[in-house]
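Fold Annotation — chain and its backbone

Encoding — discrete vocabulary of local shapes
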Amino acid sequence: MDSAADTLGVPAAAEDEGKDESRGESTATVLVALAANGLIAAAKSVAALLTGSASMVAEAAHSWADTGNGVFLLVAQRRGARPRDGEHPRGYGRDTYVWSLFAAFGLFTAGAIVSVLHGVQQLGAHEPEEDYLVNYVVLSVAFVLEGVSFRQALKQTASDARARGLRPLSFINRTSNPTLRAVFLEDSAALVGLILAAAGVGLHQLTGNSVWDAAGSITIGILLGFVAVFLIRRNRQFLVGESLAPEFVAKVLTTLLAHPEVERVTYLHLEYVGPTRFFVVAAVDLTGDEVESALAMRLRGLEKQLEGHGVIEDAVLTLSTPDEPSLTPDHPAVTG
């Protein structure tokens, strides 16, 4: 690990985030979900064609939407990981949220809207008797495959949540990794959706009333709509500027104040510019009483030390004015 970054103590402050969001593990999670969803979508489509079940149509639309989303999430991983350059001094990390936003919108349109509309259309229709066994077999196989994908997402989530001292659901809400959040929630919704589809098909079989099958389709669509809206909202928040957890901010401030060249900090701004990537702006009072040109060189040196660790894409430091109050870890008064 970079020794200059160690001097600032950045790894101690950022270690949890860096460990939590391993790019390689996230890519594996997305690939597992993509493979599972592709197989499931094909099987559900065949079952929907053979039986005409509204719930199976909804589930097929759901799985095809998840499969397309997996492609978007892989693109998000790849494009967001590009190194920063002259045109993008803070890197391309926000591209991850853009493509993840596309994936969430795809889930809403191709999954939620299609399922609800199809269910509403089938409410007044009389469906012929179905081959219920085909539906149950496909739903059972899909549950196993979705379980494999969810297990991978849950394993990464649980590991990352423990490292942060958070509960898994709290971590999923707070993490800056949109691909892990998307796979975890989509797989969770998929398992619940399979149960709803089985209930719709089962009640249709027991009562002979196809309204239950149509209701299953509508319920699945509503579930997908809630998940999609949540994912859209979280990606939007990271795009416009998500604030960091107070405990992380306090650690960054503490390590800055502990640096031998920093006497006090009067302003600190931290924001996400991608998964586990930050932009830092701070006003500091340096030790000693040197001329302006020498202080400028020292500031540039501190910036390079900050940027020497992978989690900080860009750092901008300025000098504090004498009248500005000092920040403390208990009262960081952080902006953004």
